[in-house]
Amino acid sequence: MFVYNVKVNGSKIFKYFFIGTVIVVIIIVAIVSFRIFKGANLSNKSSSCLPTDNVSKLSASNYSNVLKSVHENIDDYIGVKINFTGYVYRVLDLNENQFVLARDMIISSDFQSVIVGFLCETDEAKNFENNTWIEITGEITKGDYHGDMPIIKVTQIKKVDKPNEEFVYPPDESYIPTSGLL
After folding, report:
1. Is residue 3 part of a domain?
2. Interacting residues of 58 by C-beta distance below 8 A, sequence separation 6+
3. Residue 22: CB partners within 8 Å, gap ≥ 6?
4. If you average pLDDT over every residue of the chain, what do you get?
5. 110-114-117 Cα angle (round to 5)
6. 26 in a domain, yes or no?
7. Which domain holds residue 18?
């Protein structure tokens, strides 16, 4: 029979635990800082989202990247012509000739979504009811709606069927949701 005598030094265990915890926290802060700065650098390269010469077609796969980039860098996109599909969405304080051409963006694994979109202006706005799916072509301008806002001046508008890909997803891995639903 063997007997082992183990002496535990509580202060040494606490020191090692504390040092290990500090190292883990430093690593986490470094990773988060890198991702934040990497995302900030990517958003400054806005010219890669839309060309500035022809009409650019937005799809479900690039919709939220373009939306984010245009909202963050309005001045870089003034005059760019875009074409995309969405549904008419109105809030109470919009003018009679305005609506949001919206899409539902999935923000969680249980398919919770938020409405995202571009504010559009056209004299034909009153001809389309809420939740009507339409396709528009228009030019990005800078306007004012609770601050600087990109506004699409619609040049062509037509009613369409709901697309197969009606949902869009957050932009890239650098997207930080602001919704409290997560």
Report:
1. no
2. 66, 82, 83, 84
3. none
4. 81
5. 140
6. yes
7. 8-44
